[in-house]
């Protein structure tokens, strides 16, 4: 596989690379890349044939969008690139921007119509373009009625300001309800879900993957390397001064659990068999999972990105996939137990009946 193995994102005509370039690292910040490093990352991705770039209004306080817009202009690639950005987090007062003191504008965040229009106009300005190819609701706000979200985003598709929309960090039932309302009311519907998904974060398999398949949405994993944990560069007895997960930061040390170290041990074994880096084996596993359309890779340097892109041509055999699936298997929840072979037999008179799309 290469970055030019294009595929449709969900039930849509938006054709994207199997690896999407995440630009959360673009711009200032402790684990960010300055302009020159960001340009190097962007150009390395484009040189490898990638066509899909993911940013957000909140990344580096808007600098990520500004840099992405600048690099697209420099490379005259606006028509080639699928440009995705996000709205939802509040830039006026938020722990994300280090201004959590309160007193911010409540209409500078969330999925209400008022904020979506404000956020989109600001993103278009920073990106220097007149349309977004894929507009993400970054996070469910828990307040705005799904009807309002679908109506607002559907109208923006019809107005041509965005070509498609999708949901990130949203409960599966909300995304499913949105898709159903859109289809019933003949409004353009969501085409993808963006979720944390990796060998150490498989909780979304139970609800999100099934909902995405049912509603014709592509699944796009973020943090496929668990913020760098699955590169294997952190040592169990010393996690300091290594990368983004070292020290105090929003991602914290939550990845350093006994269970995750066991997953990493198995990943190292598989990577050794394939003569590749653990990061490449982890990405190859994610890309091969059923339902995954395009995996969002992040990098702080062009060298990291080049190594991650090489994962596209790595293929795990069945035994390697099975071993990684087993060691990283998420705990059974209520929904996954309903889909078990035992229940299927109880329902179908002892037969193994295969459902559509399984
Ligand atoms: N929707 C959402 O809520 C959400 C949330 C998070 C991310 N995202 C999107 O997903 C993208 C990817 O997320 P992520 O950055 O968390 O992905 P990730 O691939 O899990 O982590 C990337 C980080 O791992 C380290 N790394 C990457 N490749 C490496 C390599 N080959 N060798 C050593 N270290 C390496 C780098 O950090 P260090 O060098 O500092 O260790 C890099 O910044 C983001 O850019 C963003 O577009 C979306």
Automatic annotation (TrEMBL):
Location of the NADP-dependent oxidoreductase domain: 18-328
Any GO MF annotation of the entry: oxidoreductase activity
Name of one Pfam family that matches: Aldo_ket_red
EC id: 1.1.1.-
Gene Ontology CC entries for this record: cytosol
Keywords linked to the UniProt accession: Oxidoreductase
Top-level lineage group: Bacteria
Broad class of enzyme this protein falls into: oxidoreductase
InterPro entries assigned to the protein according to its UniProt record, in alphabetical order: AKR_Detox_Biosynth, NAD(P)_OxRdtase_dom_sf, NADP_OxRdtase_dom
PANTHER family in alphabetical order: NAD(P)-LINKED OXIDOREDUCTASE SUPERFAMILY PROTEIN, NADH-SPECIFIC METHYLGLYOXAL REDUCTASE-RELATED
Protein's UniProt name: L-glyceraldehyde 3-phosphate reductase
Protein's organism: Palleronia abyssalis
